[in-house]
Amino acid sequence: MKKNVLIIGAGGVAQVVAHKCAQNNDVLGDIHIASRTLSKCETILDSVREKQSMKTEGVLQAHQVDATDSAAVARLINETGAQIVINVGSPFVNMSVLDACIETGAAYIDTAIHEEPDKICETPPWYANYEWKKRDLCAEKEVTAILGAGFDPGVVNAFARFAIDEFMDEVKSIDIVDINAGSHGKYFATNFDPEINFREFTGTVYSWQEGAWQENAMFEVGREWDLPVVGKQTAYMSGHDEVHSLAANYPHADVRFWMGFGEHYINVFTVLKSIGLLSEQPVITAEGQEVVPLKVVKACLPDPASLAPNYTGKTCIGDLVKGVKDGKEVEVFVYNVADHKDAYEEVGSQGISYTAGVPPVAAAMLIAMGEWDAKAMKNVEELDPKPFFTVLDRIGLPTRVRDESGDRAWNA
Amino acid sequence: MKKNVLIIGAGGVAQVVAHKCAQNNDVLGDIHIASRTLSKCETILDSVREKQSMKTEGVLQAHQVDATDSAAVARLINETGAQIVINVGSPFVNMSVLDACIETGAAYIDTAIHEEPDKICETPPWYANYEWKKRDLCAEKEVTAILGAGFDPGVVNAFARFAIDEFMDEVKSIDIVDINAGSHGKYFATNFDPEINFREFTGTVYSWQEGAWQENAMFEVGREWDLPVVGKQTAYMSGHDEVHSLAANYPHADVRFWMGFGEHYINVFTVLKSIGLLSEQPVITAEGQEVVPLKVVKACLPDPASLAPNYTGKTCIGDLVKGVKDGKEVEVFVYNVADHKDAYEEVGSQGISYTAGVPPVAAAMLIAMGEWDAKAMKNVEELDPKPFFTVLDRIGLPTRVRDESGDRAWNA
């Protein structure tokens, strides 16, 4: 039984994680949060106190740490007595935080794949470039490391596993669809860190089809989807973390990721990208200053956290899984719908941060309760999805299923 | 009789000025060129030599100078023996170069209004904020200073003066229309320094109508024009230097400037501006670096000079002047058409640089010949337009007139 949580990061997702940990501190124990900027951690803790999110009396503490410094993170783990680390910092710090967990024996949870600042869209499968290289070491040292335990990747991996286990003998395809039908009222904004957001869409789009990696350009392949609650929406095939682990775990299935985009987003993205403003490679100004254009675009765009108060509408994220059951073709859509305004009222964040921040807390609770304390490195589809859905139902992200038999709760 | 020219600046317009000065060095004498970066001056002189532009044997020399340093410019004027300075550097250096001319007695010519780096779209009339404050001093010291002697401002000011003097007793309105119907084949590029180009369109649009300054937003007022050679084109009311001097000299006329823009330009401009990327005010990146977004956009866009080899099509810039003659309403369109490819073949530059760079050389020749050596500060409409047109006809920018009586050369 592990307890005491250290949250790494102090952005919009970290705010959700902090609130949700506080709401479940009877299970999780002490709550610590650390980032490069102490004041951002303290702002989050103020919000936790203001909303009276702590379920029971307990420790709630902010720390300053440079998460790229593995030894400093390890020291903080030892000082706080945290046995579970939820890393929702920048994807650039995954490996240093993971190393600190391996060093100290703490369980590790993250929500996105590791990235190096100067590299975009490395060769697939992406996990093999960094995280999976530590798989043997985690097993040897019995360190629990759950990779990509946000919504997508994360819950959608569990959706795929559940659909396959419950409804089919053989899986043919997994299409993950992420639609944000909400409105933030700004001219343009990204729903999480613009630097990370744009990096997802500036490289090659990798999908796993017919047993091999396929390459496309962003916005090259679009399709209209008709989804519960949000209705008809156009989504485009995009590169995404979960394609890389699902393809390894279900190599006989086609695995694709589809992200919804409006025409306005595509226009702004296309202008910025075509001019070179989304580049992570530095340019030199006429005055001789070396600048990374993408970092300037980020500085000009609204802080994603600032969108929350006026965000309205809903998200729908789910997996359309097709396969064969008793010789017959079957398909099932496993999904969640979340509401931006509800998220803001509950934890002061918008729905995208909410869907990303609740699942790693569910994973932490499952580790604390022993159900997911795998003592090895796992992607989410390698773990039993049912206890995950049970906790998610309870803490704010209910799972539903739609198929021939109708639309219902996953356990109805 | 003044002679020997010092060109300040080494951009696309300076290249045209250098070639045209060389082609007319029998009139102008020694040719010197100076900018912050010596190698850029030398590249221009290499091009002058390669195209064998020098009419007669003579001095052709490059210098390094910081044009914001008035004393350094004055020293260079004295060292080179230049009696005429053509300032086609950044608009940020106008006042320091003008001061050097006043100090040394050299004649001063520029092609755009003075700007301070951190201020956009100051209060009208713009000339009164900087240049005109030196008018009395120029008169006292008998220094010739010709302001805004490019195409627009410059030739279009002379077009207005000519139309009014020749064809009407009373002027009612002056509409300056600038259409670039050329194509550079790039996704997006500006035809001259992006920093200066965008600054023209990010502030309030000032026009002089009904005897007062009127304010509009950029792209708020558009109109379709049907012009010689380039045909039907949409142009938008924009702020521009010449409106500010013409309004002072013809206060009873409405004075407006119209710039042609395609939908693609407007879309890109709108995206960049809406996000804040055209701002001259610094932002701070997440890493703490202070950066001016506009300078980063500039660094990402193609160098305007690089467009020249593949630029095709024509420009049409002219003045629609309306007034009353013998009690009857009259209107006349005075204009020039220039060709991008012709410009490149002659001087290695695209048409926009060509139209901007030829007129100040014509002005320099008129000073050298004594016809425009006013020994005072003048805007172009305050000088006799006919000798200007005569020189422009000869050196590459013929003036034409279109009215009820047909389309013809200005002196036909």
From TrEMBL, chains A, B:
SUPFAM superfamilies membership: NAD(P)-binding Rossmann-fold domains (SSF51735)
Every Saccharopine dehydrogenase-like C-terminal domain range: 150-395
Domain Saccharopine dehydrogenase NADP binding: 5-146
TM region(s), chain numbering: none
InterPro entries: NAD(P)-bd_dom_sf (IPR036291), Sacchrp_dh-like_C (IPR032095), Sacchrp_dh_NADP-bd (IPR005097)
Gene3D superfamilies in UniProt: Dihydrodipicolinate Reductase, domain 2, NAD(P)-binding Rossmann-like Domain
Protein name (Swiss-Prot/TrEMBL): Saccharopine dehydrogenase family protein
Organism for this UniProt entry: Sulfitobacter aestuarii
